[in-house]
Design a protein that fits this description.
By secondary structure, this protein is of the alpha/beta class. The relative contact order is 0.17. Strands 2-1-3-5-4 form a five-stranded parallel sheet, with helices on both faces. The N and C termini lie far apart (about 30 Å). The chain contains six helices and five strands. The radius of gyration is 14 Å and the shape is globular. Helix 4 links the parallel strand 4 and strand 5. The chain has one domain: 3-Layer(aba) Sandwich (Ribose 5-phosphate Isomerase B, Chain: A).
């Protein structure tokens, strides 16, 4: 799977560990920054990853900031992005199965390294179930289209 990954300075260390974990599991990972712990702004990296996923250059995206809140809000401003902020594996799986999430957001101050890897693995293993959920996905897209 082709995965775009990004973080701000607070999420940098977890992003680096996730990148290694993903590559070890056979995924093609492209790091869209930040590349160090120097203070930066999460919307920059949320936009880079979200645009790349929305343009279909990547299958999925993963974003990390301190809580995951700001970076997920930012990513969700990009048309076609359904970014899910998850702090445990069950929600991550369901976000794929029911919401067809294409970006996962994590909070590095909220989840530890081991839990983050479980969340990512569950999210990546999730398969969108379609059918009854498709109506809701279309409703979300309609809201997005009404406000542009």
């Amino acid at each position: 799977m082709k995965i775009a990954i990004g973080s701000d300075h607070v999420g940098y260390e977890l992003k680096e560990k996730l990148k290694e974990h993903l590559e070890k599991n056979g995924h093609q990972v492209t790091d869209m920054g930040t590349y160090d712990k120097e203070r930066t702004d999460y919307p920059v990296f949320a936009k880079k990853v979200a645009v790349a996923v929305s343009e279909k250059s990547f299958d999925r995206g993963i974003l990390v900031c301190s809580t995951g809140v700001g970076i997920s809000i930012s990513a969700n401003k990009v048309r076609g992005i359904r970014a899910a902020l998850c702090s445990e594996p069950y929600s991550a799986l369901r976000s794929r199965q029911h919401n067809n999430s294409n970006v996962l957001a994590l909070g590095s101050d909220v989840v530890g390294e081991g839990l983050a890897m479980m969340i990512v693995d569950n999210w990546l293993s999730g398969v969108y179930e379609g059918e009854r959920h498709e109506k809701r996905i279309n409703m979300i897209a309609d809201i997005e289209n009404e406000n542009t």
